[in-house]
Amino acid sequence: MAEVKKNEEPRIGVFVCHCGTNIAGSVDIKSVVEYAKKLPNVAVADDYQYMCSTPGQNKIVEAIKEHNLTGIVVAACSPRLHEPTFRGATKMGGLNPFRFEMANIREQNSWVHMHQPEEATAKAKDAIRIAVAKAALLEDLIPKSVPVEKAALVVGGGVGGMQAALDLANAGITTYLVEKNPTIGGRMSQLDKTFPTLDCSQCILTPKMVDVYRNENIKLMTYTEVEAVEGYIGNFDVTLRKKARGVLTTEEAEARGYVGGGCNGCGDCEGVCPVIKPNPFEVGMAPRKAIYIYHPQVSPLLYTVDFDACVKCGLCVDICGDKKAVDLNATDEFVKIKVGTAILATGYDIFPIEQKTEWGYKRYDNVITSLEFERLICASGPTGGHLVRPSDGETPKRIGFVLCAGSRDNTGVGKPYCSRFCCMYSLKHAHQIIEKIPGAVPYIFYMDIRSFGKMYEEFYYRIQNEGAKFIRGRVANILEDPVTKNLHVNAEDTLLGRPVDVEVDLVVLAAAIQPSAETERTRRLFGVSCSQDGWLLEAHPKLNPCGTTTAGVYLAGVCQGPKDIPDTVAQAEGAASAASIPIHLGEVELEPYFAQCIEEKCAGCGMCVNLCPYQALSLVEKDGRKVMQVTEAKCKGCGTCGGFCPGGAIWMQHFATPQIIAQIDAFLLGGEQ
Amino acid sequence: MADENWKPKILAIICNWCSYAGADLAGGSRIQYPPDIRAIRVMCTGRVDPLFILKAFQDGADGVLVSGCHFGDCHYLEGNYKAAKRMFLLKNVLKNIGFDDKRLRMTFVSASEGAKWAKVIEDVVKTVKDLGPSPFNELAR
């Protein structure tokens, strides 16, 4: 335990920040400072325009020396923002940084009581009184340094996950790239062209997939999911579930003694497999066998048995012959790895747009989603790149695009947010049909065209000039002509102020996106929060968009919120950079909020041992009786043990019972009665 | 019902990762709510010893709010479950001694629920205002 300086008379310095007018606009700073000066144990109280500025911090440094202070209180913004700053200043002044306490008078005061200056001022005084009471009891604490495992984990093998893994690997870090599907590539591999450059998606993606596959530092684990996560930054113990693939790699075959065996991707097995089911890669529009590759450009080139569909007839085993690559008795395997940091890149799914019944998806043959459009227009897709109407296989000439299909939707059925890339890909779709189908006319029904990226607005103008028809209005409903299967798109043209009814051959819904199905489970394993829409929550929306509140866990790509490919790749590189820092440092400091046992009070009942979610506590023999012992490296400082101990024998560093009671007393008994 | 000018003393003990962040978000979004709450930050609601709450009531608090992460979202896996259990028991204890257990509330507000935080505070303040000053208030003085 840190040494408590006994009998030391506390001398606290209080510093009140104006934050320009952010605080001073509602809180009477002068009155607060005068009040603070009279509080018990306060040696000096001062204020400054911006406490976080260099002169502001210097005030703290100088006051510590001048008044021989034992504790510092800064009343300013949230400790979640500037606690590290002021801890630094406290340290510069020669005090232990944990002798600092913050009173939040901005986020939880001036900003939420903007028109109640009297109440805000009274609340600020209380907050400072509470903070001073705690500061008087704060003790020196020494953070614990722990070594960082020189390996990283990336969950999700889409373009974001691949980029993050490549960056980490190229920085010399062993990187486990875990992907639930049999191949890496993610959503981007399903796309035909990318906006606004019209690059072929696969053409720019496959080199990256090959890079990932060949990189010696990347341990690529496809068809694998994260099963369990234990530990903390620097030392995550992760259990991975390698799903039963039923097909052996060359290495796995050799390990079983089949030299020269293993899957070489010849595809003979697929030829003989009698089972047919819809191919999810083609959004169900093409068949797939029970033994399959996801798409022609998969990496690794390795077949997979779909055990939900397989009837175990054994034809594939027979035709594979001496390669002995197929094992129909395979079971899931569990692999344990240890990593220092982890990046989540779990991506997105398409919102089930059939829930918006007014547009008739899954009811009308000729209403498709934009992902289905991508596959139909793609040369490697089920139609070889010929866009056809599902109802009759004819080439559509008039195509309606419904934007914001389920996005920006406050009806409760759709999603309130903007899915961010639908405008742009719909413009691209319009371009593609104009290019591919002579005489085709795209009708784009939009609320706003959000073309905010580099060269995006220019692309929008280009599509306008190419002859796409833009109708500003949300589509009210779509009705099918039962004979022709043509569709009537009904909307209000808000620019002309009149209803329109456009007959088209095909409707493409730019469906909203939502977090992928695995996101919720994965985030809970890593202890990462999510926003109300289920997107993973970054540590700070502006200043820490790649980090999370769990130290050592970072975010890349759409799992953090809708974004297009350039933004995903940029964030992935940011996340990789952030994730590499602790690894390159070699050790990280843990906040020393550990539990400590006050052995004189401990009765050895062991209640706390079972409460600890981290198995950090144990009972040991000491002087002929049992007492609790804390393993500091395992303790995360939640205080669940301390909140329960019937004997009050647990000292939670920095959140000790006397410190919290002092805060309560200061609030309720110490004020102006 | 107490008179309109009466300002209740309400203590909030809130966890660092969810409710404190949610309260910060309410601030960042400038969502206005009643100024009758004083918050103490702990790392996890699991840290909340029932003793703290009893001490607060003994000191004359008119209400106590304990707010943590949603179930399944706890930064420390399960601290909020344990806190919820303790608060449930404590409410029963308070009821048994004839103290209105509505003065103690446990809520779950995530880091992204600034608006919910404001609603919770409005609701807690209204509840306490309707109940009037704590019967211990006089004793505490």
Shape of chain B: globular
Mean pLDDT of chain B comes to 93
Sheet/helix structural class of chain B: alpha/beta
Outline the biggest β-sheet of chain A.
5 strands, parallel
Rg of chain A (C-alpha, Å): 31 Å
Order of helices and strands of chain B: EHEHEHEHH
Question: Could you estimate the helical fraction of the residues of chain B in percent?
Answer: 40-55%
Query: Largest interface by residue count?
Result: A-B, 56 and 55 residues
The total of helices of chain B stands at 5
Q: Which blocks of ≥5 consecutive residues of chain B have pLDDT under 50?
A: none
Point out poorly predicted stretches of chain A: 1-6
Strand order of the largest sheet of chain A: 10-7-6-18-29
Tell me the strand percentage band of chain A.
15-25%
- Individual helix count of chain A: 17
Number of strands of chain A: 34
- Helix residue percentage of chain A: 25-40%
Query: What is the terminal-to-terminal distance of chain A?
Result: 37 Å
Provide a brief overview of the structure.
The complex is a heterodimer of chains A (673) and B (141). Chain A is an alpha/beta fold and 673 residues long.
Structure description:
- The complex is a heterodimer of chains A (673) and B (141).
- Chain A starts with 11 loop residues before the first strand and ends with a helix.
- In chain A, strand 25 and strand 26 form a beta hairpin.
- By secondary structure, chain A is α/β, with parallel strands linked by helices.
- In chain A, 27% of the residues lie in helices and 24% in strands.
- The model of chain A is unreliable at 1-6 (pLDDT under 50).
- In chain A, 51% of the residues are buried.
- Chain A is globular and about 90 Å long.
- In chain A, helix 6 (159-170) runs parallel beside helix 7.
- Chain B has 141 residues and is α/β, with parallel strands linked by helices.
- Chain B has a four-stranded parallel sheet, sandwiched between helices.
